[in-house]
Amino acid sequence: MKEEEVIGNDLPENDDQELFEHYRLVADPGQSLLRIDKFLSNRIENASRSKIQSAADADCILVNNKPVKSNYRVKPGDVISVVMPHPPREIELIPENIPLNIVYEDDFLIIVNKTPEMVVHPAYGHYTGTLVNALMYHLKDNPLFNTGEMRPGLVHRIDKNTSGLLVIAKTEQALNKLAKQFFEKTSERTYNALVWGSFTEKEGTITGNIGRNIRNRKIMQVLPDDTQGKHAVTHYKVLEELGYVTLVECKLETGRTHQIRVHFQHIGHPLFNDNEYGGDQILKGTTFTKYKQFVKNCFDILPRQALHAKTLGFKHPATGKFMQFDSELPSDMVQVIEKWRRYISGREI
């Protein structure tokens, strides 16, 4: 039924495609005229007619490449394409009073600047203390956050040890409209990353299909065969050269699991202190003991990959107005960048 197989829950978090499903159905030649909401609710598991109607209202249901409303009557041979948020999962979620850094909020959405160490949504080993648990408390009177779903309102996410901006929908219609933008790649996101090494070119594009690592399913890799994995494109430009490391801005054309981390490892520039992709080793620099201690001190200040989701842009689901948000680098990244600046200037380490 699905045009594209959905990634399983055992993968690391981050791939935006995991948050919604893309279905493609073709009506049988003998199909009788039937409302599309009823047609789809009979064919998509765990999809109620109300959810399908909400998806139709957000133009997330196409028939023969044209948006239709929920009262459209399916005809023989119709090609139906649907983008819908994932169905509910069987797990009890507990609202928790966890502080959130809320950048913006209105009746339709909320923008959060996520701290490092916070998992976005409950999964194996992380059933409490997540962003979703915090949102369920903050939005306890919101019907969308009382459904028992694992990912209420989520249209994209970032890794546990990555900081930065996330948008969360507060209504079913906002969720569908935002999900459509992320699925169709019309949203805009930039990240700042501190990576090992220097670059000969000030700007570049990394392209490479991403899939599960052959030896370790918890991490990803760029696959040599472009018929495998998922197409991924990352654009980058150098913001600041800091001797043996470089601060870069990354713009995502796709949203794959660990995309930035995997792509920069692939071109020989792992993210600084990324323990899953080799960046937690001293990859560039001198053999002097003083230098090794300097890098260790940086690792202690920044005990995670140096990656921050800095900007986020999308059309507001209600007004249609394009909204752009920016965030400051977190203190751990700022401190380490300052240390590298002092190091290359020849002053105190």
Describe this structure in words.
By secondary structure, this protein is of the alpha+beta class. It has 3 domains: 16-85, Structural Genomics Hypothetical 15.5 Kd Protein In mrcA-pckA Intergenic Region, Chain A (Roll), CATH 3.10.290.10; 102-187, Pseudouridine synthase; 190-309 and 330-344, Pseudouridine synthase (2-Layer Sandwich), CATH 3.30.2350. The protein has helices at residues 36-41, 49-57, 131-138, 172-183, 259-266, 289-301, 331-344, and strands spanning 20-26, 34-35, 61-63, 66-67, 73-74, 79-85, 102-105, 109-114, 163-169, 188-196, 203-207, 210-212, 220-222, 233-242, 245-252, 307-315, 322-326. Strand 3 (61-63) and strand 4 form a beta hairpin. Helix 2 packs across helix 4. The radius of gyration is 22 Å and the shape is elongated.
Layout: helices, strands, pairs:
Layout: E1 20-26, E2 34-35, H1 36-41, H2 49-57, E3 61-63, E4 66-67, E5 73-74, E6 79-85, E7 102-105, E8 109-114, H3 131-138, E9 163-169, H4 172-183, E10 188-196, E11 203-207, E12 210-212, E13 220-222, E14 233-242, E15 245-252, H5 259-266, H6 289-301, E16 307-315, E17 322-326, H7 331-344
Helix pairs in contact: 2-4
Question: What tags apply to this protein structure?
Answer:
349 residues, alpha+beta, Structural Genomics Hypothetical 15.5 Kd Protein In mrcA-pckA Intergenic Region, Chain A, Pseudouridine synthase, 3 domains, 9-stranded mixed β-sheet, 4-stranded antiparallel β-sheet, 7 helices, disordered N terminus
